[in-house]
Amino acid sequence: MLVVAGLSPHLGQSDVKFFLGIDGGQSSTTAVIGDETGRVVGYGRGGPCNHVKTGDGRAKFTGAILGCVGLACEQAGVPLAETKFAAVCAGFSGGPADKETLLGELVRSERSFVTHDGLIALAGATAGAPGIIAIAGTGQLSFGRNAAGKTGRAGGWGYVFGDEGGGFDLTRQALRAALRQHEGWGPRTALHDRLLAETGATDANDLLHRFYSSDYPRPRIARFSKLVDEVAREGDEVALSLLTSAAQQLAGYAAAVYGQLFVEPEPVAVAPIGGVWRSELLRERFTQLMELTEGQKVISPRYGPAAGALIEAYRLAGAQVSLSEVPNEKE
Q1: Which of 44, 121, 256, 308 has the maximal Cβ count within 10 Å?
Q2: Which pLDDT band, with edges at 50, 70 and 90, does 5 fall under?
Q3: Cα–Cα distance measured from residue 27 to residue 62, given in angstroms and rounded to the nearest whole number
Q4: Domain at 128-301, CATH from 3.30.230.10, 3.30.420.40, 3.40.50.2300, 3.10.180.10
């Protein structure tokens, strides 16, 4: 259990209202509890909970929710079984379908809102303010909300029909470049040898067939996208062009969301989220492109998605607070 400096228990304070934010994802579930002032008093992490109907999904969902919320309640000094939260917001990978009723059976609250993970990621990144997030992890999605509460999105079409600029797509483009070199009709690139060295493949054709096998699910393939950045920083023109193209595609999606929700030069924060943004070359190019439009400002995310869900819980209850003592959700 993560211990957050400055947190104090609230045993015996039954008149205190508590608010709960939950981020339910494919790898873990995180719960954050805040008091009436916006101070985070409890934090907990559990297992994945993105599937409910498949196989033992219901049991995993129940275990993940009770695990992370139970840990957060323990840290806050309030018993989960006896606590009725003033408001709960939960955002789930894959959306809220089939989860709202089950969540209500596990966590008692006066008000609840179950949504998708994009909304809570945005709320965390901008601390609840209007803005846009440009997600580029294994896949890709741009999502935004304006001051009137209207939301918009662009991309996120999946690995077959879209996800340009995401990690899987970057690796796919790197492999295509390696295949063009292998067949003699494309320019030479260090991506060819680097991919073979990292995977142990004998040649690009062998690597192609490996990537089609069940040994290489999409998240694993996406992790090889870091090679594109490494090779680009060594001066490889093919790799650099792939990063430049990815930045342009990601900027295009984010700009589309801006056009749906905002009127130039209305100021708006744009927050990149996801592993692809570890590439400084890609992020710098993205920033240049976005900030060509007056009013757009690329920022680092303020908080994580669980804190974003907590912000939405306060919003649901009509409470206006500023969060304090917020833990680092990456730890």
Answers
A1: 308
A2: very low
A3: 15
A4: 3.30.420.40
